[in-house]
Amino acid sequence: MQAVEVKKFLEEKIPGAQVEVEGEGCNFQLNVISDELAAFSPVKRQQQIYAHLNPWIADGSIHAVTMKFFSRNDWLARG
Questions:
Q1: What does the DSSP 8-state code read for residue 59?
Q2: pLDDT, average across residues 8-14
């Protein structure tokens, strides 16, 4: 699995989100930029992502995922 596949998939599933993905094979690091998700609790944010990735996790295409969430303003403020 490639990072670009994960990025495209999640951006299609989460309207208005920007997803930056690093990694390859079955391990990925996600930076999810979404004002909507940033308003949720940390657990709820992760649940939203895992809901979409679970089929790939179940079949072994994805083994490990780490996630960070940002509002658009917080992402831009990172410099």
A1: T
A2: 96
The total of other beta-carbon atoms located within 10 Å of residue 37's CB is 20
In angstroms, the CA 75 to CA 77 distance is 5
In one-letter notation, the amino acid at residue 6 is V
Asked if 36 and 16 touch (Cβ cutoff 8 Å), the reply is yes
CA separation for the pair 64, 62 (Å, rounded): 6
Contact assessment for residue 7 and residue 45, using Cβ atoms and an 8 Å cutoff: no
Let me know: does 38 contact 5? Beta carbons within 8 Å: no
* pTM across the whole model: 0.91
Q: What is the DSSP letter of 67?
A: E
